[in-house]
Each structure stands twice: as structure tokens, then as C-alpha cells.
Predict the structure.
Amino acid sequence: MGSSVARWRAGAAIAAATVLSVAAMPGVGQAAQSGALAPGVSYQTFSLTASHGAVQGYAVTVDLHRASVALLHPAAVSARLPVSAMADAQHAIAGVNGDFFNISETHAGVPATNSSDGPEVSGGRALKAAVPDSQRFGPSLPAGTSTRDVIGVGADGRGRLGSLTLRGSVLVPGQRLDLAGVNQYAVSDGGIGAFTSAWGATSRARVVCGSDTSRLDPCSTDTAEVVVRHGIVVSVASAPGAGAIAAGTVVLDGRDAGADALRRLHVGEPALVSYRLDRSTRIPFRFAVGGFPILRDGAPLPDLDNTVSAPRTAAGVSADGRRFFLVTLDGRAELSGGLTVQELALQLHSMGAAFGVNLDGGGSSTIVTRMPGQTSVTVDNNPSDGSERPVANGIGVFTR
């Protein structure tokens, strides 16, 4: 257990709390310790017994009237950092890892991009959109969910689940080309992806690999790349490139039919690139991160896996959106066997969440906290890799 937890426990009061649905999991028992990290932010460690034995857990509950949550992220979409580094850089008092991401690559000569599956919104600004469902990393999606699903906080200050769908285009003389991606490691067959300065310097080669059937399918050889600077086409090339993208510049990469469309553009002609993330909610998101829903209206989704136990991270919100929940469970360890996805949904519900998502798990599962009086966060859980794994993004907790 992290050293900050040990110090915290020295002064923490023993608390009782229901952790999993006893009706759903007979014989569950738990012990908890809790306290306040800051006004409106409570922290708890707990232990329970689940289907695969003892489990050690860590949870943060945020009153969104007194504290806030926001996206933890590196300087570039195509970069990754440990949760602790992102939390300290952004002065968060707590945080967990976020979405699944392109951590490894099977296509020869194509580097992994480190970019997340789903959308990212920070400070109301869309950093990226979602890859096609067939190209995502992570476990199978429950029925009725997609990579476009997010959890976040709206402009009204309330937490919520929703989905964010890309709407974008390139307007050139006499035609309009639809965008299939913005700062994504993959786009749909025949699509065009746009890359901005937020992407970083990582190679864009991955965007033409995989297919609408499988992310393991070969890379397309029918490709094109167009650079648009301040609304004017400045170059047309035959393949995706690499390197930092300057402010005011958009790089367009196409595959197959999308490549054909880009090859028809000419240096010197105007090209207006625009995009937005259409939301399924009435209120726009101020912050959002990808994660697949596991809890809706207080009930676990009906087809969640209840067989595979692993380290898990999840986030949830109360029915009124006023409370935000973060939870991490140790797994693959002698003292903690982890939870199934269904058990994770029950855990969120027991904490008071009515809606929730599964975030990246396994070696990515991390929770950090900064105790009162400390100047930096400490990793509280026991990462199953033996140390923190750098990740694409996370959820941070901040004082007002």
C-alpha cells in the first residue's frame, strides 16, 4: 500500500460503508477508513470480499459545489505520462487514470500513438474525437455503448454521462469533404482524419491502419496527406508524415476514397477546416473523457462481464449530478484479486452513483492523492505492473 495511505491511516477514523450489493453477492464483507482531502473531497480505503477473493479498494468522492474535476492530460494527445506526473503538473489533489489507449502496435514499422480511444474535452475545448468501435483497445463493449461515450462535467457544473459525435468538414472550391477523425489514431474506411497542433510530433501513420472490421487488419497503401496552413493548401504528399504541427496548421490524412479526394486538392487553393463534437446532452461538456457505461439509472447494464477479475478503475456520478465518484481496485496480487466489470458497477452504485463508466484497468489502474500539508501526490494503490504505467489521460480533482 502507498506510503501516503499508511500516513493517512494513522489519523483516520474507522468508518462503515456498504461496498457491494449483498443481494447480488452474498457474504460480502468490508472494512473502511476515511477522511477529507479538502473541503468537498473525501477519501476512503476499503477492503471487501468478491467472487475472486479479497479485494483492496480506494475511492474519492467529490462534492461538485465545493470542488471540481477536470481532464488530466500530457502536453500532446499523442503522449502519455504517469497519473502522478499529470496530477502534480496540473496541481490536482487526487486523480485516477482515464480511457483505454493505443499502448501497443502490431503493424510493422508503425509506432503506437499513445492516444486514447474516446473523446477528450478540456476547459470546453475538444482535443480529440473517438476512433471507430472496431479500432478500439480494451475489453468488448456492452451492447448499446460505443467509443463515443464519455463521462464528464457540464457547463452547469454537474456530472453526467453522454456521447460526443464528430461533425467536421473541409470546404474547398466546389466541394465539401467530410472529416472522419480529429486527432485520432484511426478513422473509418475511406475516411479523412484531421490533425492539429494538439496532436504532438508522433507519426500519423497509424491513422490509415486497421479497418471497420478489425484494428488488426493491414494498413492501407492508398493514402494521401495534405497540409493546410491558415486556410490555404501548402502541400500534397502520398503518405502520412510525422513531426510537430504549428498553430494555425491542420494536417489532413486520407485512406482509399479519402485519399482520392485529398489528391484532387491543389497547392495554393483555399481550404476551410472546421469541426465540432455534437453532444447527446442538452448542456455542453466543460470536461469529458472516454469510458464505456456500466451503470445507468442506478442499475448495472444487463450484459456486463461477470467472469474476468482484474484491477479496475471507474468513475461515476450521482443521480442529481452533484457528486462525482472515482474508484480504483487492486488486482492480480496476493492480497487483492480485483473485480469483474459487473462487480465494478455494483461497487459504484454502493458508493452512491446512479451512472458510471469503466475506465482503463490492469496495469493502468492508478489512484493518487495529495494529503493535507503535502506538496505532491502519492500513488495509493498497488499497480499490477509493479510501478505506475504512463497513460494517455486521467481525471483530476481540484480545490476551488
Notes: The two ends are 29 Å apart (CA to CA). The longest helix spans residues 341-351.
